[in-house]
Structures are given as C-alpha cells and as structure tokens.
Amino acid sequence: MSEIETRFLAPPAATGIRLDLTGAVTRRAGAIVPLLAVIVAWEAASRSGIVTPFLLPPISAVLGRVWEDAISGELALNLGQTLFRSLAGFAIAGAGGVALGILMARRRWVRWFFDPIVSVGFPMPKIAFLPIFMLWLGLYDVSKISMAVFNAIFPVITATIAAAEGVDRPLLWSARSLGASERQLLREIILPAALPQILTGLQVALPISMIVMIVTEMMMGGQGLGGAMIAASRFADSPGVFAGIVEIAVAGLCLVKGIALLRGRLLAWHQETQEPTTV
Q1: How far is CA 65 from CA 60, 76, 148, in A?
Q2: Once rounded to an integer, what is the mean pLDDT over residues 74-87?
Q3: Nearest Cα to Cα of residue 144 among 202, 209, 96, 94
Q4: Interatomic CA distance for residues 140 and 134, integer angstroms
Q5: All structural domains of the chain
Q6: Which secondary structure element, helix H or strand E, spans residue 180, and what is its range?
Q7: Mean pLDDT for the stretch of residues 166-195
C-alpha cells in the first residue's frame, strides 16, 4: 500500500473508533441519568417536607440502612436465602420446562396430554395457589422453591415449544435422509436452532422466579429479603422497608444482567451476536 493510500484510509478508521466510543458512552449515560434523576428527586422530596420521612425516608438514610445491614451480616444472610431459593426454583423450572417443551413438540401424545394443562395454567395468576402450597408443603424452603418452579416453568415450556416447532423442516428432512437418529437430530439440529428462543424463555422465567420468591417470603415469613421487609413493616421501620426495596432492585438487576451475559456467551456463534445492538 502506498503512502498516499495510507493517509486516506487511516483517518476514517480512527473516526469510526471515536464514534463507537462516543456511542457507548452515550448509551451508558442514557441508562444512568434517569436513575440519578429519580435519586435526586427522592432525596429532595423527602428533605423538603412535601412528604414526611416516615412515608418517604431520604435515600441517604435508606442507603445508610443498607450499609448497616451489610456490616451486620443480615444482608448477606437474607440475600443468600432469597437467591438460593430463586435460583433453585429457576434451575428446576428451566430444566423441566425445556425437557417438557421438547417432548410436547416432538411427541403427539405428550402434546395431547399436557397442552390443555399449559393452556389453562400459563395465563392464570398462579400466586393464588400459595395457600395450597402452604397447606401441603409447610412454610419452609420446599414450599417456597415449589412456588417458584410452578410460576416460572410455563414461559419456558411455551418458548421451547415455539422454538422446537420453528426449526426449518428441510434441515430435519436432510438429516433424516443422511441416517441421523432422533437423538442426533435433537443434539445437532433442534437444540442449536431453538437455543435463542429457549434462552428468551429463560430470561423471562428468571425474574418471575425472583418476584414470586419475594412475595412468598412475605407471606410465609422467615429469613430472606421478603421476610425482612415484612418484618420491618410490622415494626413501622420505614427505612428498613425501603432498604429492602433497594436491595431487591439491585439483586434483580444483577440477575437480569447476568443471564443476558450468559446468553451472549452461549450464542457467540449466532447471528444476533454478530450484529451491532441498538439497545
């Protein structure tokens, strides 16, 4: 390459890098600025006397309470209990939902039996079964994890069915003509092709598991973020209640970001990771 060509080609590359960096910074700022605005408005409203500190304690006092919980070890204990139950329920729902969804898509008799159950169970408010789970399984981890599984499994099943049925038929026909067995079809074609949509169902199921676990802990009591919040409300501990909200929000955000990162790793080969994102 001549010196003249180098001079003409180098500046656009540098400009492109600067534009990418500027876009990344802009997106980050766009995500942080609204949160900062809410925090500032919260502190100003509480300090101004528009609302009493009991109804809306200052964010500084709430963060101070979070720090106290962290130093005392109470935050680690409650957060650990909630995350353990939520992730256990999510893992069971994910494994069971993917397996059942694949079977419903590949076996007519399985579809015939479970389709009415899924069709009725998916749209209904399954948290209404909480008293039944309390009667049947008690007030401890088994009933709480079972509630998370019961609520989180339906979006995984429906996403897996849609993904497995959406695999290109010519691919399956070609593999069969080459002598592929049912297990090879599943491992080599169906699961890789269906993986993006299955992961979408899992991304929906994870926050559902977390939400249901918080509500379940509030109703059943005991250790956990939900139990700590309801205990604080019984003693009119307003900073403790809002500290629980902040802790739940941060934990939920970390879970959502974590599964999004896992999706990017698992789909490194897929077209969606090769295209520039606009989010």
Answers
A1: 9, 14, 29
A2: 94
A3: 209
A4: 9
A5: 18-56 (no CATH), 59-269 (1.10.3720.10)
A6: none
A7: 79
